[in-house]
Design goal:
Keywords: Membrane, Transmembrane, Transmembrane helix. By secondary structure, the chain is mostly helical. The protein has five helices and no strands. It is 73% helix and 0% strand.
C-alpha cells in the first residue's frame, strides 16, 4: 500500500462515484427540460382546443394573419397580466390556458437552473453553487421586476 492512499483502488473508486453522480445530475436536468417542454405543449394544445371549441369567434384571428393586432391590444382575447390570467383560468377560457402553457415553457429553463443549484450542492461544488445561485437570482429578479 502506498503512503498517500491506504487502499490502492480508492482514487479510481472515487472517480467512478463522481462520474456516477454527474451522470445522475445530467439525467435529472434533462428530465426537467423534457417534462417541462412536454407539459407546456400539452397545456398549450389543450388551451387552443378549448379556445376554438368554446369560443369559435376567436378562430377568426388566425384566418389570414392580418388580425394579429387584435391579440396584442388592450382588451384582447389573451390575458396580459397575472390578474387577467387568473380570471381567464377561473372562467375556463382557452386563452388563459394557452398563456399558462407559455408561462410554463418560459419557467422550464429557470427550473433547470434551480435543479442545477441542487445538483451542485449534491456534488459539494461550492463555487458552482454560488455561481448558479447568482444566475437563478438574476433570472427570478428579471421576472419580478419586468
Amino acid at each position: 500500500m502506498s503512503r498517500g492512499h491506504p487502499h490502492p483502488h480508492a482514487a479510481p473508486l472515487r472517480a467512478a462515484e463522481l462520474t456516477r453522480r454527474v451522470r445522475q445530475v445530467e439525467l435529472a436536468i434533462s428530465w426537467v427540460l423534457r417534462i417541462g417542454v412536454i407539459v407546456s405543449v400539452l397545456v398549450i394544445g389543450a388551451g387552443l382546443l378549448l379556445m376554438f371549441l368554446h369560443h369559435p369567434e376567436q378562430a377568426r384571428l388566425w384566418d389570414d394573419g392580418s388580425n394579429y393586432h387584435a391579440l396584442v391590444q388592450p382588451g384582447a382575447y389573451f390575458p396580459h397580466s397575472l390578474a387577467q390570467l387568473r380570471a381567464a383560468l377561473a372562467a375556463g377560457a382557452g386563452s388563459g390556458v394557452v398563456v399558462l402553457g407559455v408561462l410554463l415553457l418560459i419557467l422550464t429553463p429557470v427550473l433547470r437552473v434551480a435543479v442545477s443549484v441542487l445538483s451542485f450542492v449534491y456534488e459539494r461544488d461550492m463555487p458552482m453553487v454560488l455561481v448558479t445561485l447568482f444566475v437563478l437570482t438574476v433570472l427570478v429578479l428579471s421576472f419580478v421586476l419586468a
